[in-house]
Amino acid sequence: MKLIERYILRRASGAFLATLLPLMAIVWTTQALSSVNLVTDSGQSIFAFLKLATLILPSIIPLILPFALVIGVAQTLTAMNSDSELTVLNAAGASRMTIIRPVLYIGIALSITSFAVDNFVEPYSRMAVRKMIATAHADLLSSVVQENTFRKVADGLYVQVASRRNGGVLHGIFVADSRDPAYELVYYAREGAVDENGTALVMKDGEVHRKLPDGNVSIIKFDSYAFDLTDMTKAAGEATIRAKDRDLPFLFNPDPKDPVYERNPMSFEAELHRRLTEWVYPLLFALIALVVSSDARSHREARMHPMITALLTCLFIRWTTFYAANSAEESRVFIPIMYLIPVLTGYLSIRQLMGNKRLEIPLTWEQKVNEILVRLRLTKPASASDGNPAP
User: Fold this and answer.
1) DSSP-assigned beta bridge partners for residue 200
2) Residue in 32, 60, 61, 30 with CA at minimum distance from that of residue 48
3) Could you tell me which residues come within 8 angstroms of residue 131 by beta carbon, excluding any fewer than 6 positions away?
4) CA–CA separation, 103 vs 30, rounded Å?
5) Cβ atoms within 10 A of the Cβ of 131, count?
6) Which residues contact 309 (CB under 8 A, 6 or more apart)?
7) How far apart are CA 49 and CA 28, in angstroms?
8) pLDDT in tens, 112-145
9) How far from chain centre, in Å, is Cα 188?
10) In contact, 55 and 132? CB cutoff 8 Å
């Protein structure tokens, strides 16, 4: 690799990482915060929350990598053009491949990484998240031991305890059960405990109030009463494994007796083709960034910032792929489209690069976008001497 290629590789890699880390932090934070209620409601520890948040990371990496790359490459090449480095390279007779080659190295490496994460790491992390969520929902003991706090164990079922003693003994138990529309049940007990199997809440020295729809209330006192939790723990403890949670071998040869597959076999087929196409987008987006920003241009030339052009193009392409992938779960007609989009994008990008052609948004669209960006104060109005709006 030539010295200038190593220089471009180093700058583009640095810009990519500088973009990737903040993007990943933002997306990871929003995804992790959505799990706070699960952890707090089930009484899990901070370590369980951190574990759950860490398991979310593999699912967001393949989505962020292409966009971080296109921003990093476009920003690097635009900065080199502003510093007249691209002009110097052209004047020195350097081949355009000098600029293209290091960017392609990054794109290929990230595509391989995306394929590995999407097909080998993410399915296992998703499976672990599903099982962790199911375990948290099934751990009803941790739900009821929160002192002086009402806990929703299931729809229409709430539990509160006054205190917890050694040996798992609960004092001051209150249970409100309105799951049956024919009547409401309210349980009071001085003490109790969840059995070792977690299938029953055994209450002692209490009473149950049964309220009918007509307003009549019957009260029954008891010395010992076992409140059945079997149905809830069984349903909550079973993790629902969807198509996105399955590994690649299973998608190639799904179990016909799998209950989720029986209900929606098309979702597994669509997920398989998504896995086989999504990994190429880092390389495709690298090509788009090269088409938009790899040529030397005059500072006086009026045009939209290359990074904005590249991002808008990539966002449109990514939206079409998401739409095709989601629609493929309903109709096989969209499966060829999932392959056509990356193939066509790659072909057009390579054709533009080989022909030294520029990819630009139509002038009328560019003017409207620039007006919107100026109003949002994301760019400055173009000056008389420099038609290129600064980002």
Assistant:
1) 228
2) 32
3) 239
4) 30
5) 15
6) 292, 359, 360, 361
7) 13
8) 999 999 999 999 988 888 877 766 655 555 555 5
9) 44
10) yes
**Rounded alpha-carbon distances, angstroms, from residue 193 to 160, 162, 196, 203:** 13, 13, 9, 7
- What is the mean pLDDT for each group of 10 consecutive residues in the chain (391 residues)? 88 94 89 69 67 86 94 91 81 83 95 94 88 64 62 79 78 88 90 76 90 86 85 56 88 88 90 94 95 69 73 93 93 94 94 73 62 62 48 51
Q: Rg of the chain's alpha carbons, rounded to an integer?
A: 29
Picking from 70, 89, 19, the residue whose alpha carbon sits closest to that of residue 293 is 70
CA 306/CA 290 separation, integer angstroms: 10
Q: How far apart are CA 171 and CA 193, in angstroms?
A: 9
| Residue 97: count of CB within 10 angstroms of its CB | 11
Left if phi > 0, otherwise alpha if psi is -120 to 50, otherwise beta: which for 389? beta
Question: pLDDT, tens digit, for every residue of 329-338?
Answer: 999 999 999 9
Round to whole Å and give the CA distance between 304 and 382: 10
- Residue owning tokens 């002692």: 204
Straight-line distance from the first to the last Cα atom of the chain, in angstroms, rounded to the nearest whole number: 32
What span, in angstroms and rounded, lies between the C-alpha atoms of 337 and 324? Answer: 7
